[in-house]
Amino acid sequence: MSHLIAPSILAADFANLQRDVEMINNSEADWFHIDVMDGMFVPNISFGIPVIKAIKKHAKKPMDVHLMIVDPDRYIKDFKEAGADIITVHYEVCNHLHRTIQAIKAEGMQAGVVLNPHTPIRVLEDIIIDLDLVLLMSVNPGFGGQSFIENTYKKVIQLKDLIEKSGSKALIEIDGGVNDKNAPKLVAAGADVLVAGSFVFKSENPTETIAELKGF
């Protein structure tokens, strides 16, 4: 499988959101990556269900919703109704992670777990077989435009090893500071999905930038 590209809507121009959604529709991107922040788990507030519903009206590709929120179980059904196809939740906030993953799947969505940069891969050993994807944060979550954390390559290799040994079919997704320099190394290490925000939307030609990332 060729790796997937998921532009992060957090870096889009919110005053021209439909334009940017159409750009992604017409590009080589595979998913929409949508960061939901509550100002509690992370020190920032992004957008919620009304904005996701608005994006869904125009989006022609799967919506990959990354919940950076406390108590995500309360909102699983709401995000499904808003248009989410994939939901990822943070290991760091889920007291009953297996139950949360099963609740996401019960709504007909793909389910994944997110690990912050300091969280080791080994915490997934007992749940990896149940996951559709694992999202590794390559920056500290909460704000776009941060610098990539180099230790991420090692974590990708460790995660790939765990997935292969367990027989899991989980995809490896990377979020944070992805650009044309580290993307080839991430794919070589085993990454399946690259989230790119600022690198795409702040470029002179976002469609070409997406094609460049897709071509590695």
Automatic annotation (TrEMBL):
Pfam families for the chain: Ribul_P_3_epim
Active-site residue list: 35 (proton acceptor), 175 (proton donor)
Keyword Zinc attached: yes
Catalysed conversion reaction: D-ribulose 5-phosphate = D-xylulose 5-phosphate
Keywords carried by this UniProt record: Carbohydrate metabolism, Cobalt, Isomerase, Manganese, Metal-binding, Zinc
Keyword Lipoprotein assigned: no
Sites where the protein binds a divalent metal cation: 33, 35, 66, 175
EC identifiers of the protein: 5.1.3.1
Record note on cofactor: Binds 1 divalent metal cation per subunit.
A GO molecular-function annotation: D-ribulose-phosphate 3-epimerase activity
CDD domains referenced in this protein's UniProt entry, alphabetically: RPE
This protein's GO CC annotations: cytoplasm
Biological processes annotated in GO: pentose catabolic process; pentose-phosphate shunt
UniProt binding sites for substrate: 8, 66, 142-145, 175-177, 197-198
Pathways per UniProt: Carbohydrate degradation
Top-rank lineage group of the source organism: Bacteria
InterPro entries per record: Aldolase_TIM, Ribul_P_3_epim, Ribul_P_3_epim-like, RibuloseP-bd_barrel
Cofactor(s) this protein requires: Zn(2+); Mn(2+); Fe(2+); Co(2+)
Family per record: Belongs to the ribulose-phosphate 3-epimerase family.
Function, in words: Catalyzes the reversible epimerization of D-ribulose 5-phosphate to D-xylulose 5-phosphate.
HAMAP family: RPE
Full protein name: Ribulose-phosphate 3-epimerase
